[in-house]
Prior knowledge:
Helix content: over 70%
Strand content: under 5%
Number of helices: 10
Low-confidence stretches: 231-254
Order of helices and strands: HHHHHHHHHH
Shape: elongated
Amino acid sequence: xxxxxxxxxxxxxxxxxxxxxxxxxxxxxxxxxxxxxxxxxxxxxxxxxxxxxxxxxxxxxxxxxxxxxxxxxxxxxxxxxxxxxxxxxxxxxxxxxxxxxxxxxxxxxxxxxxxxxxxxxxxxxxxxxxxxxxxxxxxxxxxxxxxxxxxxxxxxxxxxxxxxxxxxxxxxxxxxxxxxxxxxxxxxxxxxxxxxxxxxxxxxxxxxxxxxxxxxxxxxxxxxxxxxxxxxxxxxxxxxxxxxxxxxxxxxxx
Length: 254
């Protein structure tokens, strides 16, 4: 309980958030590391998964990537990369072994994005796709107008999973002199100051909950069925007003 009270005091102390090693700096670094890794995951994995899903091939590849990504510990990958040439240099705000950290995080974040995107496109009703092709749509039009909108919720779900996982896993960057909130936790362990450990853990957990909530809101907004339902509801609400205005116009004309 004393450590928990000390952690709360640390979080509420404005001085703890100031300076180059303050909590605010560490939090910004954690966000930067997470966002950068997520962008790289989307650039590398999303187009590949959507293309394989549209073609109806590569299912074994997508599943194997997912299984390998879950089976290989990200810390082991980071440790191996940090020992090589790419682990000895400093990469701007990402610190020493910054490139190794980003590569390890990207490999960890690819499985949910690739698997969900591929499955999302493949689960689109084949009859709808064939009907679209029957109307003369090109393959690009079928993908853009039919498959991608219907798969958008599954794709967004994969991105949400990757985002939260990357945020939580980015703390290991501190183990190879990288940035982020992991430095707060490792500092606490190395100096037997467990109030720092708990404070860092609270920030990481709170950040994960915030990102989960924001991503869930975005995921609901990109759901095409939700948009269609909302449009129908709006139409039902507006119909009585339109009818009343029509009656007024008819009465005025008569």
